[in-house]
Structures are given as structure tokens and as C-alpha cells.
Design the sequence.
């Protein structure tokens, strides 16, 4: 349980600090632009723990420093989940939301930002602000939760969030098939994941056993499989392109020497390379396909996003409104402040 | 002021064409309010036909330092489209083209004036539909849905408008055009698209909208359960969720509204029920069969008198027609109604409903409830005759008390109608001064001029040091 004192201390620390970086489990530390470095950086930790959980409401309120696997265990004990699905289960809820990285079941369950109902964050001047609300449906006021998800700590330090939960599926089954993943996307009803590596596709089906079996039976050459690992390597990134661009993008990624796994129907491609140049090549391929590549790990020579962000001026005004002195993890989301 | 409006009108007519901007008294009266109760006054009304014309109109408003209010069909219930501060009203209903449908990638680009149901009709032959389905879906526009982050019965499982909007082309208050979001799953930087949805026209005007299209489920079953007490019906709702089932839709209607609807459409609802639940389950064969059994079991355990499963699509459509005609049915009972919208945690439904009826009883008002029970979204509906002396005071008092009861139970001010003018002064019930200041900062970052739909959503005094920040020449 977070205590008032903890959040109070955090507020004071943020208000006093010259530059602030929020630290969780450091599993997402290298995602995006570089973390603040230097002597004047104050590292702050959000509190951890479940605040309230009523399974019958299908919502859970959790302190942002809580590890996602600990949250998952608490929910699973009641037959529920919040579908955070981080690559590394040690990730904290706050770190995951700050980077906004959705998990591989997005095809069925939607992006991470759709799971967040309420946020509480500490502002640059050390106040606690609440946005959204604790109920599953809410249009009271502007959508601060969506502003915070994927803001890389630039708007405020997340201290507490309320998440939507859902019943765990009765059955979840992976299989692998050489079938065309785009045809699978057309033919299967709401698969949870179609992860394509260029030759084979790992498919995740969730539902009651009879439906899972019946859907699987419709796929040629389906073989039982375990959950696939995402590509690993010293340099990693995540491409975002419109789903129809994947077919053309895939051979280019092979050419530049990237290992990749594409979420068909979503447009996310997980990329890993042995050298930085190859990741840069993957970024160029993503840009050519109308998308972009977010640096997730390694590749210190690459910037986090690759070029100027769209709507930089508008984003600058938003950041300036919340953090006029650019003290909150300024390099993480490199938008030029509008300067009033 | 009148001369100023003449100059505004003349400028708009020269930019948009003489037929596309008007200021005749009858026209202005038509646009003085939406479907809510608040009445305002428009200075000029214009009817652009393209996104470029919307931007032109906004630029003219900027030159005249004039507020502007975007308006679709005007079905909003919270006064979000009510003109305040003598604004230019920009009507988007002529931007009504479906620009592109991609069945493979499952999205459509639409203009803001496309009617919600028209989009689903247009893509039906592809086995797709647009999931958010507000009860006004035959009349409301997708642009208006974006502004209010509209919901509907089927948002229980599939999510409200914000989860179905992929990208937005918007005109900001200075007349510049920005593309927010995109067809790729993530977009670099802040989720400006997410901020814009539900901003009730205070951040700009959407001129093109990319929405996600949802595949039609292979199997759909609609069940009607009826109860002899509203508590049993509410307990069934909790029981269904507790059984690990999130239906596609889970709607409740109380005794009064059930009788009214039955008299109006003859859907076969039991006239003597204290409450009915309309439950829709969809998906694949096995899962739906399992859920139908479970809902039936939970219902019977909680005292359901009958569980009727619609035999075919025609019966299913009839049951839904009853639900969606609820507000038409009211007109036969009393000339006026006031529809509320608040959300409580699902576990508090029984307790809050009891309080809501007690409040109505105390204020000697007729109250009906027809609502999205599955997500705790209450719609208490007060029917009355406005000619009765003193009735408005009691209606408002009851409304305030209902809202307070919902908030006290851990609820929020609105589930899908929005804040608009109606609930702006209630915002401090759920938000602190710091919370409201943060919302004002976000709004002002989108529109530093404060001319985009002024005075909506945020209560007076939301900004720290608000008085110092009012721009020169603003109507205070």
C-alpha cells in the first residue's frame, strides 16, 4: 500500500529537483530517447502495491511501482487479467504505461492505452493530479490517461493507475503454421495474436476449448507450439506501420539483416540486430513503408524515434503546459518546447 | 456587436459562398440548442461542405476573434453544441461522405457528418460494422460521436468511441490543419488523437476520421430476462460479470419504461415485470452456448421469472427496437423528460438504484430507468410536464442529488453524454482544483485562443489565475 507520506515525499523531491527521471525495474530504461544523466538528476521511485481490487467490478487500482507479474498473479488468483503483457515480466506498471508498449495480444485485446481508466501523477511543480475515473466507462473531463500513456515521463510521474480487468480465457493455445498470415487474419475469428517471422506464423487462440479446437482445425498444417520468443539481440526496436504494409516491409528487413517478428493485423514489428547499422537499416525500411521505428534497447548511436515527431509544435505546447521548465525526463521524448 | 456579426457573416459568405453562411432569426433559433436543455444564441451559422471550407470558416472566425462551435446533428444531451458567447456555429452535416473503406485492413475514412448507422449500413455487405452504437445512432454523426466519445449498448465488450478512432484530421482554432494518430498501431510521441476524442469541440473540429471496422460475430444470441424486483435484476448483472462473462451488451429497463416501450413498439416485453434485462452474447458457437447457459443459470438463481432467447434475427431486432425506442416511448407519458447519465462501479448498482428511486419519490417525480447495466452506466430519466409550477426546481434538485449519490458510491459524472454546459459546475465533485487546472492546460495547449467552444466542460475558475489569462477582447 502506498502511504500518503511516500507520495508526499515524491512530490517534494520532484518540485525541488532540477531534472527528474522516474525509475521502475529498468526493464524499459532504454526505450525511446536517452534517460537524463548527470549529477543534477533526481531519480524518483513510485510506490508499489495493490491499492484496491474488487473482482466483481473488473477493475484494479495499483500503485505505479508495482511489478506487472505481481499484479498478474493477484488478478489470476481471481480468474482475471489486465493484459499488460510486457516483454519482461519484471516491468513495473508505471514504466510500461510511460513507454506505452502494447503486448503481443493486442490484435484481440486492443492497445495498452485502452486498458487505463484513471491515472494519478505528480506534476513538474510537485502536485498530485488525477485524470479519468475509476469506472469502466467515463467521459467526465479530458482524457488525461491517454495523454500519460506513452508520454515517456514527460507529462508527469505516474504514481497510481486504475486498470480495466477481464476474465482469463478458459483456454489459450498457441500453434504454428506455414499458412499465409494475411489469409489467417481474414479467416479466423478474433485470433489473439498472429506472429509472423516470414516463413511461419505463430497463432494464439483464446476462448472455450471447443471453439479453439474448431478454429485451429480450419488452418492447414497447424502444429502445436509454445509461446514464441520475440527476436533477441543487443540492438532492438519496434516498428509501427499500417498492417497492410507488412508484406512489402518483411523482405526489406531480411535484406538489412534484422531478425523480426511481425504482429499481423496490428502492424507492430519486433526487430533485433547484432549491430547498430542494421537497426538503422530497419528504421529506414520502416520509414519507407510509411511508419517509424522506436528504439527499445541498445543502439546508443540512434535517436529514440528517428527524426522530428509529427505535430511537434502542438506536442511542444502540451509539454510546455505541463512542464514549462523541461525538467521531467526531457530527452525521452525529444519535442522542442514551444516556449510559450 | 450586431455590426460585428454582420461583418462576420459577410466575410463567411464571401469565403464559403452566399448560401453557406446565414444569420436569419429562424436559422439562429434552430441552432440555439442541442437535444439538451440549455439554450444559447448563435451569431452566425455556416454550412461548409469540405474540410477545407471548415478550415476557411475557422480562419474567418479567428480574424474576427470570434468563438466557434462545431455541431453535427445536435443530438447531444449535455449542451456541448449550445452556442455561448455569440459564436459562429459550424454545422458539419454536409460533410457526409464515406471517403474510403478498406475491408482487408478493416478501417474507413469518413467525414464528420456521416451518420453513425449509415456507416454500419454501408459496410454491412462486407461482414463489418462500426461498433459504437449510441441509441441515437440513426441520427447522430460520427463527428459528434468523436466529440463526446460516445458509447452505446455494445460498448460493454467492444469499447467506446475512443477505442475505435484510429486517426483524425482536425482544424485547430487558428485554422491550421493537423493529422492526429494514423493507421499504424502506434504514433510517435504523445497520443494527441486520444486527447482530442471526447474533448467536446474545445480542441478543434475533426474534418476526416479514420475508424476501425469490426467483423460481425459469427453467432449472436439475445436473451430477455424478466424479474419481479429491480434488486434481483441488478444482482443478476453482478452475477453475470462475477461468472466471468462480459456480454456484448447488458441492458436493464425498469417497470415503468418496460410498460411504456411495450405499449409503443409491442416487442413482447412482459408488461408486469419489475425489471427486464436484455443480454446479448456473441462470438463463436461454443463460447456463446456456454455463456447462454451461464446467463440463464445466473438469472434463474437470482429469481428471473422467464428467460426468453430470441429465436431468430427478426425477434432479436424487435427486442433491440424496444430498447432503442425507449426515449420515443416516453413522449406518450409526459411532454418533457430529463435524461441523466452517470456511472457507478458495477458492484454498487443495487445500492445506488435504491437511492435514485428514493430521490425521485422524495421530489414527487416520475422516474424511469433504462440503462447500460453491464458497465454501471445509469440513465435515470425523469418525466414531467414543464407547465406544472415549480417542477423544474424539483427536477434539477433530483438531478443534483442523483449525481451526488453516484459520486458518493465511487462513480463519475458522465458515461457517454459528456459534460458540456450541463455538468460543468459539477466537475469539482470528482476533480480537485489541481485536476481541473491540468485539464485546462491540455485544452489551452490545443487552443491557446480559448475560442473553440468556450465555456464547455471546465467549470469557471479551473485555471490557476484564470482572470489574468483571459485574452483581451474576450466576452466575459
Sequence:
Amino acid at each position: 500500500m502506498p502511504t500518503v507520506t511516500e507520495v508526499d515525499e515524491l512530490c517534494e523531491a520532484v518540485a525541488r529537483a532540477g531534472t527528474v527521471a522516474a525509475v521502475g525495474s529498468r526493464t524499459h530504461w532504454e526505450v525511446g530517447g536517452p534517460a537524463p544523466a548527470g549529477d543534477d538528476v533526481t531519480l524518483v521511485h513510485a510506490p508499489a502495491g495493490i491499492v484496491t481490487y474488487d473482482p466483481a467490478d473488473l477493475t484494479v487500482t495499483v500503485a505505479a511501482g508495482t511489478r506487472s507479474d505481481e499484479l498478474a498473479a493477484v488478478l489470476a488468483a481471481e480468474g482475471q487479467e489486465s493484459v499488460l503483457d510486457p516483454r519482461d515480466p519484471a516491468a513495473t506498471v508505471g514504466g510500461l504505461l510511460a513507454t506505452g508498449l502494447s503486448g503481443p495480444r493486442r490484435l484481440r485485446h486492443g492497445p495498452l492505452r485502452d486498458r487505463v481508466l484513471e491515472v494519478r501523477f505528480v506534476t513538474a511543480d510537485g502536485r498530485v493530479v488525477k485524470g479519468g475515473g475509476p469506472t469502466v466507462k467515463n467521459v467526465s473531463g479530458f482524457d488525461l490517461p491517454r495523454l500519460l500513456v506513452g508520454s515517456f515521463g514527460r507529462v508527469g510521474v505516474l504514481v497510481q493507475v486504475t486498470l480495466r480487468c477481464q476474465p482469463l480465457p478458459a483456454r489459450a493455445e498457441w500453434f504454428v503454421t506455414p499458412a499465409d498470415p494475411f489469409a489467417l487474419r481474414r479467416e479466423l475469428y478474433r485470433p489473439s495474436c498472429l506472429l509472423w517471422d516470414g516463413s511461419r506464423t505463430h497463432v494464439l487462440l483464446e476462448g472455450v476449448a471447443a471453439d479453439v479446437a474448431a478454429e485451429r482445425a480450419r488452418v492447414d498444417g497447424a502444429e502445436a507450439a509454445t509461446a514464441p520468443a520475440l527476436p533477441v539481440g543487443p540492438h532492438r526496436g519496434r516498428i509501427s506501420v499500417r498492417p497492410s504494409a507488412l508484406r512489402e516491409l518483411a523482405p526489406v528487413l531480411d535484406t538489412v539483416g534484422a531478425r523480426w517478428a511481425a504482429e499481423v493485423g496490428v502492424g507492430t514489428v519486433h526487430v533485433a540486430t547484432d549491430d547498430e547499422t542494421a537497426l538503422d537499416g530497419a528504421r529506414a525500411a520502416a520509414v519507407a513503408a510509411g511508419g517509424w521505428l522506436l528504439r527499445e534497447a541498445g543502439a546508443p548511436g540512434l535517436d529514440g524515434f528517428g527524426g522530428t515527431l509529427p505535430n511537434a509544435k502542438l506536442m511542444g505546447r502540451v509539454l510546455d503546459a505541463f512542464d514549462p521548465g523541461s525538467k521531467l525526463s526531457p530527452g525521452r521524448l525529444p519535442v522542442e518546447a514551444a516556449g510559450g | 456587436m450586431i455590426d460585428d456579426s454582420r461583418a462576420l457573416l459577410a466575410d463567411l459568405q464571401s469565403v464559403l459562398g452566399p448560401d453557406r453562411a446565414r444569420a436569419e432569426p429562424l436559422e439562429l433559433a434552430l441552432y440555439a440548442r442541442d437535444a439538451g436543455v440549455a439554450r444559447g444564441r448563435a451569431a452566425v451559422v455556416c454550412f461548409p461542405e469540405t474540410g477545407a471550407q471548415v478550415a476557411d470558416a475557422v480562419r474567418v472566425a479567428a480574424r474576427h476573434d470570434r468563438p466557434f462551435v462545431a455541431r453535427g446533428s445536435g443530438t447531444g444531451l449535455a449542451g456541448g453544441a449550445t452556442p455561448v458567447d455569440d459564436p459562429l456555429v459550424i454545422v458539419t452535416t454536409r460533410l457526409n461522405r464515406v471517403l474510403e473503406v478498406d475491408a482487408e485492413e478493416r478501417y474507413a475514412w469518413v467525414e464528420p457528418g456521416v451518420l453513425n448507422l449509415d456507416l454500419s449500413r454501408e459496410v454491412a455487405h462486407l461482414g463489418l460494422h462500426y461498433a459504437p452504437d449510441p441509441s441515437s445512432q440513426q441520427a447522430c454523426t460520427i463527428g459528434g460521436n468523436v466529440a463526446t466519445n460516445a458509447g452505446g449498448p455494445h460498448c460493454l465488450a467492444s469499447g467506446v468511441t475512443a477505442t475505435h478512432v484510429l486517426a483524425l484530421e482536425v482544424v485547430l482554432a487558428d485554422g491550421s490543419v493537423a493529422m492526429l494518430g494514423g493507421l499504424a498501431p502506434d504514433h510517435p510521441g504523445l497520443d494527441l488523437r486520444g486527447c482530442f476524442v471526447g474533448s467536446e469541440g474545445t480542441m478543434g473540429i475533426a474534418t476526416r476520421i479514420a475508424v476501425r471496422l469490426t467483423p460481425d460475430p459469427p453467432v449472436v444470441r439475445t436473451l430477455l430476462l424478466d424479474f419481479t424486483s429491480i434488486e434481483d435484476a441488478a444482482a443478476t448483472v453482478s452475477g453475470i460479470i462475477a461468472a466471468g462473462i462480459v456480454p456484448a451488451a447488458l441492458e436493464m429497463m425498469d417497470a415503468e419504461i418496460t410498460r411504456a416501450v411495450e405499449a409503443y413498439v409491442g416487442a413482447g416485453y412482459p408488461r408486469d415485470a419489475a425489471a427486464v434485462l436484455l443480454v446479448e452474447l456473441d462470438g463463436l458457437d461454443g463460447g456463446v452456448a456456454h455463456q447462454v447457459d451461464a446467463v440463464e443459470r445466473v438469472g434463474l438463481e437470482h429469481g428471473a421469472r422467464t428467460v426468453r432467447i430470441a429465436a431468430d434475427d427478426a425477434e432479436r431486432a424487435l427486442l433491440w427496437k424496444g430498447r432503442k425506442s425507449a426515449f420515443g416511448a416516453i413522449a406518450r407519458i409526459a411532454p418533457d423528460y430529463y435524461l441523466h447519465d452517470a456511472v457507478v462501479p458495477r458492484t454498487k448498482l443495487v445500492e445506488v438504484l435504491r437511492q435514485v428511486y428514493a430521490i425521485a419519490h422524495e421530489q414527487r417525480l416520475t422516474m424511469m430507468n433504462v440503462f447500460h447495466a453491464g458497465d454501471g452506466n445509469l440513465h435515470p430519466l425523469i418525466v414531467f410536464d414543464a407547465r406544472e409550477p415549480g417542477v423544474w426546481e424539483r427536477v434539477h434538485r433530483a438531478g443534483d442529488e442523483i449525481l451526488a449519490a453516484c459520486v458518493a458510491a465511487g462513480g463519475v459524472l458522465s458515461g457517454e453524454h459528456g459534460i458540456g454546459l450541463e455538468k460543468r459546475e459539477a466537475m469539482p465533485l470528482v476533480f480537485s482544483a489541481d485536476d481541473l487546472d491540468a485539464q485546462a492546460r491540455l485544452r489551452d495547449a490545443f487552443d491557446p485562443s480559448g475560442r473553440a467552444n468556450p465555456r464547455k466542460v471546465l467549470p469557471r475558475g479551473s485555471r490557476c489565475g484564470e482572470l489574468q489569462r483571459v485574452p483581451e477582447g474576450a466576452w466575459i
In short: Residues 115 and 133 of chain B are 11 Å apart (CA to CA). DSSP finds 16 helices and 20 strands in chain B. The longest strand of chain B covers residues 219-227. Residues 433-466 of chain B form one domain.
